[in-house]
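Today's session is about reading a structure prediction critically. Students often jump straight to the picture, but the first step is always the sequence itself: look for stretches that repeat, for charged clusters, for runs of hydrophobic residues. Only then move on to the predicted structure, which in these notes is written as discrete structure tokens rather than atom positions. Here is the chain we will use throughout the hour.
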Amino acid sequence: MARILIIEDNVRLANLIAEGLKDKGYNCDIANTLADADAAIAVARFDAVILDLGLPDGDGEQWLRMRKPVSEPPALILTARSGLEDRINGLDAGADDYMVKPFAIDELAARLRAMLRRPGPRTQTVLQVGPLSFDTASRAASVNDRPLDLARREADLLELLMRKAGEVVRRQGIEDALYRFDEAVTPNAVEAIISRLRRKLDEAGAGGCLHTVRGVGYLLREHDG
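Below is the predicted structure for this chain, in token form.
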């Protein structure tokens, strides 16, 4: 699941965007100021940013110009500024897309999908690890072409582990990817999701793919027999 940072000072609108995108399969965090956005980006990995321009502690366009685009997530400006010059300036400042308020959540979700398909670490839409396959667009998983019935967070976890196949993913990294900053996370939440996913993989014939590296994290790799 793609993780999105919504930078918007209108709390009600930010919450509406987050809820609408959640229904489309996105995991969203909210920052109401640019300072909050910088703090969020410093501690978590985001796949894209939705950015308002008129913010209490500065202008989003200037914030964009100060970013390092190679290492930071793509940005979609979402603003009431509708003039041609505004759109040109926003794109020239480093935005990857530009939308004007009011907007339809379906179009916003479609534009995010288009941004995430562009060349970069999320270009691949179908992930494959041994008998495991995961379609990141439809959120459908399968083992040897047989559908795997996963809850939303189980699917999110599987995608994360498949993207990092062969690497140990730390527990904190999983928690950061699966839960928003404002969500309460129980101490054993990650272990519970891991346990459910492992059981379903075992039952589907993909046993031995998901490994626990004690004291460190979890590892997904092709079962080597």
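Discussion point for the tutorial: The mean pLDDT is 88.
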